[in-house]
Amino acid sequence: MLGECAEAKGNHLMERGGYLIAPHTKSATHPFRNGILHEKVRLVNDKLASEIQAKIDEGDTFLSEDRFALAVKCYEQAAALLPEPRNAHAISLQVYLALGEGYFFSGYYDQALVAFQQAMKTSGGIENPLTHLRMGQSYFEIGELDSAADSLTRSYALDGRTIFDGEDEKYLSFLASRIDL
Description:
Keywords: TPR repeat. The chain is mainly alpha-helical. The protein is built from seven helices and two strands. Strands 1-2 form a two-stranded antiparallel ribbon.
């Protein structure tokens, strides 16, 4: 059951900072996409987890091909498969980070922020530097510079300069104008 976004084939990955990522700094295989599990995390059954992961994988393929609308559609389908409460499952962080990145790379920064805020509510979301990085970038793009500085600072504090490797230099330059790096 692959759905409407199953036509994607091929995965064009490159190495960045020791991680495999999709081109244009899309972080489909970035280790921070998977999060950290805590004791109160709920696990979806294996069949449902496989369906959700398949949607994420399809979306990641589209994202790596710059087919953002199709990637977002897959990620939205993955999110729709999450049982309530949607942010309480082991795979929830991965789903909401993927959805946020789909919106971010599509230029829908307000929608990206909603997804990243949902990611923050999942197990491992608060301590995930990628969540903070993408939130900061989204805030930056919509002109909310104080919020951008806050999120980018948190990302930097969690992972140092490494999290900015391969990203547009404007984000690190902006952060350097706000804090001592």
